[in-house]
Amino acid sequence: MAKQRAQAVDSEQPDRWEAQLRKGALEMAALASLWQRRLYGLEIIRFLERNSRLVLAEGTIYPILNRLKAEGLLTSDWVEAEAGHPRKYYSLTDAGRQRLRLMAEAWTSFAAGLSTLLEPVLEKQEEPQ
Amino acid sequence: MTAETQIDSYLSSLRLQLGPLTLAEREEIVREIGAHVRDSAEESGASVETVLARLGPAEELAAQYRDGLLIRKASRSLSPLVLLRATLRLATKSAFGIVVCFCSIFGYSLGAGFVVIALSKAFVPAHTGAWIQDGRLVSMGAFVYGVSPQAHEVLGMWIIPLGLIAGSLTLLFTTLVIRTSLRISQRWQSRL
Predict the structure, then answer these.
(1) DSSP 8-class letter at A67
(2) Residues B188/A69, Cβ–Cβ less than 8 Å
(3) What are the tens digits of pLDDT across the range A67-113?
(4) pTM as predicted
(5) What are the sequence ranges of the domains in chain A?
(6) Is residue B66 in a domain?
(7) Which member of A69, B68, B90, B133 lies 3.0 to 4.6 Å from B151 by CB, making a disulfide possible if both were Cys?
């Protein structure tokens, strides 16, 4: 029984943990996708699929964009398209650029620190094979 | 159902569920999601049904917007009602939320308790106070039946300002802690 539970935890925990990690990174990723140019929601989703391994439920991104806009990190404009309906384009505000730069710095130094820490773990895994 | 009626029924369900938002916000969201569904169907050649399934149920999507609004509003609010509602919502989502919820209920009760003691001194002075017996505090507060006759009351009328100050500070501190927790949760869990 206890063993079974331990196995269940083993197999579930990394997935849930990874999901939390992705969720935490999503906000930064959404901001980063707008660094070069303005995009609309679907373009942001496709951009993230292409350029990062952030596969997301399509509904997730819109409430996040809404919140980032409410926080003043993004602005939006409705732009007429050939598609026949206008699209809501998002772009970074100055505050958004500044926040993203800080996030990128924090993330990079955090990841670099962890990589050093994790190096021996990954090496050990290779030895027995 | 044709594609257009499917989209329409999804959007009207979404509109309905977005009730607490302002009309302008609601319409903007509905318009944006509508554009997404049409673009996504056209781009991938998938059926509207598939696109809507990928988007998730309208109720869930609306709930994400509503939670965002609730927490955003609460993290700027001073009202215990708004703050408690937000922490209750948070408590349904994560262990962190449950802890925040318990702490806020405790903090509010403690703060309100101090204020009630201060007020009751004005109305039932003989039954309110801090009593000391043999050099240690035996009871403090407002009591219906009074306290053991050997104990003597030490604070007198000072309990009114002290109670009010302790009460306000506790309530203020609780408010700040909740608001900070909500901001943290927004950053890491609001996709909840």
Answers:
(1) H
(2) no
(3) 999 989 999 999 987 767 899 999 999 999 999 999 999 999 999 99
(4) 0.74
(5) 2-126
(6) no
(7) B133
Same domain as B99, residue B17: no
Pairwise CB contact (< 8 Å): A87 & B35: yes
Return the residue of B nearest to A61 by Cα: B191
Give, as one character, the DSSP assignment of residue B151: S
Tell whether B54 is within 8 A of chain A (Cβ). Answer: yes
Has residue B67 been placed in a domain? no
Nearest to B54 among A24, A58, A85 (CB): A58
> SS3 of B71, please?
helix
Distance separating alpha carbons of residues A12 and A4, to the nearest angstrom: 12
Chain A interface mutation, best of B21, B185, B188, B191, highest count of A Cβ atoms under 10 Å: B191
Pick the CATH number of A2-126 from 4.10.640.10, 3.55.10.10, 1.10.10.10, 3.30.420.40: 1.10.10.10
What residue spans of chain A are helical by DSSP H? 2-33, 41-51, 58-70, 94-126
